[in-house]
Design brief:
about 325 residues; mainly alpha; about 0% strand; globular; RNA-binding
Length: about 325
Amino acid sequence: LVSWNAVLAAYSQRGLLTEAKALFDRAPERDLITWTAMLSAYTQNSDLGNAKLVFDEMRERDAIAWNAMLHAYAQAGHLEYAKHVFDSMPERSVASWNSMITAFAQNDHLAEAKAVFDAMEQRDTISWTSMLTAFAQSGHLRDAKEMFDKIKDPDLVAWNAMLSAYAQNGCLDRALEMFHTIERGDSIAWNAMLSAYAQNGRLYEALALFCSLPERNVSSWNAILTGYASNGLWREAIDLFQAMKTVEMPNEISFVCVIIAASHLGDVDCGLGAFVSMRLDYCAKATKQHYCCVVDLLGRAGYVREAEELLQTMPFVPE
RNA sequence: UGCUGUCCGGGAC
């Protein structure tokens, strides 16, 4: 049972919903942990409906199961339901309170997030980090830093959160300071710093950092790609994408950047080629955003009729 | 072996 649960948890954490469900259905026996892992797998895939179904079918529920359901509602932006679960659950752990902080914060209810935080009788590093991020997201850098300073032994996530707080608010010097202070930074720290540079038009520094990294993942490449794209360096974006393809698997975001770049260069072949290759060669699914880009690509190049046709035939409802 | 924190790609408008 433990082995089955371990594999199910692995699927769930990687967002492999199909595999998780198949394993869940095949499992010879299921305990509370099995059910909770399945619930979380649905939450990971933004499938609130099925998460709720799993929760309803559970014959027993502990604090963790309740928290998982609370988080499912919070993720879906259903604050009222989240609050209701929070109020009606038999016992509340620090994780329950932490979930409420992010639930409010992510829905732009900073004051309520703070109220929850203040009402907590005990707080852990996650509580402080959640509040730090809540402040940072609404531009309250001083408050965010105050939270960070109150963490007795900040872990890498807390450091990264503060680094991102500076980076996202354009305080590149502060961000770099944090970046250098972090001893063993991970890819999240690198990429936060990368996109901070790239999004502020400091592409030279972004590239320098990019080249100096011990290793690069898709997000590192995408950070530079989007930096080029948002600074109008369309040609560079396409060139970088070509280089990227030789060493890294581009993802949906990479393709959006290329198609946008191609659109601005009027290079319909390049854009369409990327769009087709994305699905054929990389088995990536085209999102509404990709269709939006291709419509833009066609429209700009004067293929208005083709653009309209695509709008009619794409598997999404046009906005 | 299950729950919570480091959200975030452009364009068009």
